[in-house]
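anyone seen this seq b4? input:
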Amino acid sequence: MIGWLACVAAPARAGEREGGSLIAIGSGPAPTIAGDLGARLRASGGGCRIRMGGWFGRVAVEVVVTCAGVDTPDGHHDSLMLTGPSVAWLPVATRWFQLGARGGLLAGSIIGERTATVPCDRDRDEACGFRQVDERVRVHGFAASVGVTAQLTLGARRGGRFVVWADLGTQLARFQFADAVVAGRLTQLTIGIGHAHAF
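predicted toks r here
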């Protein structure tokens, strides 16, 4: 009787789906920017990707943040940042290694500082005609993101795990500049580390 119960219980345990939570950060070389957006911006200073979420079986759901430094033709250095949800399907999902294709929708902006010349407050200083001030410039946009992520998890089957991962992705982006809507493609390689808690 005990042996029969053990045979019934074993397949159930074998069929249990692995899952867990994850927080991870990575960096890489400056992304490649193509299309009309590439004519306005040149990536510089590297890029980053932050992942927060989890997985259950072969499905992973995360909130991601991607960032990169960009240079403008007039010599300014700005920051590009996009964030949003990402869903991945893991055709390879073992206890120690996961490989998946992901897709998501991101929104964000390109942020920079500019020096502007504005009229002075004549009530405070009648001799002043104009003065220079630093202004923050923000260009809003959104992107559809697709990519492939490989992840190696090290540690116990349950509980905390150390994570090493790599991601190659493309973002099809559109930004609303002052004079036009500009589209382009950003391709980025990221390598990072993280911490997972498996259950």
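The radius of gyration is 24 Å. The longest helix spans residues 2-14. kinda curious what u guys think
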